[in-house]
Amino acid sequence: MSQITLFSKNNCMQCKMTKKFLEQNGADYQEINIDEQPEKIDYVKSLGFTAAPVIEAGDITFSGFQPAKLKEIV
C-alpha cells in the first residue's frame, strides 16, 4: 500500500471529511497542513491543484473529498 499524504487547510470541511474517512478505514496517512506549512503550497500547486484537500498516494493524486477514490487507496 502506498504512503498516503493529505494536504489540508484549517477550517476545511472536505479536509475534515477526508481525514475522518481515512481514520474510519484504518489508513496510515501523513497530514501536511498548508496553513501551518505554507512552504508546501507551491508543491501542491505544482501538482495542478488550487483547492484543499489534496491527496497523494503513489501515482494517484486527487483533490476534494472523493470517497470512491479514497476507497481505492486505503
Q: Low-confidence parts, pLDDT < 50 over ≥5 residues?
A: none
Silhouette: globular
Q: How helix-rich are the residues, as a percent range?
A: 25-40%
How does CATH name the architecture? 3-Layer(aba) Sandwich
What does the main sheet amount to? 4 strands, mixed
Separation, N- and C-terminal Cα atoms: 8 Å
* CATH fold type: Glutaredoxin
Total of helices? 3
Describe this structure in words.
This protein is of the alpha+beta class and 74 residues long. The protein has one domain (4-73): Glutaredoxin. It is built from 3 helices and 4 strands; from the N terminus they run βαβαββα. A 4-stranded mixed beta sheet has the order 2-1-3-4, covered by helices on one side. The protein starts with a strand and ends with a helix. The model has no long low-confidence stretch (mean pLDDT 96).
What is this structure's SSE topology?
Layout: E1 4-8, H1 13-24, E2 29-33, H2 41-46, E3 54-57, E4 60-63, H3 67-73
Parallel strand pairs: 1-2
Antiparallel strand pairs: 1-3, 3-4
Write a concise synopsis of the structure shown.
With 74 residues, the protein is of the alpha+beta class. The protein has three helices and four strands; from the N terminus they run E-H-E-H-E-E-H. The termini are close together.
Q: What structural keywords apply?
A:
single chain; 74 residues; alpha+beta; Glutaredoxin; four-stranded mixed sheet; 3 helices; 4 strands
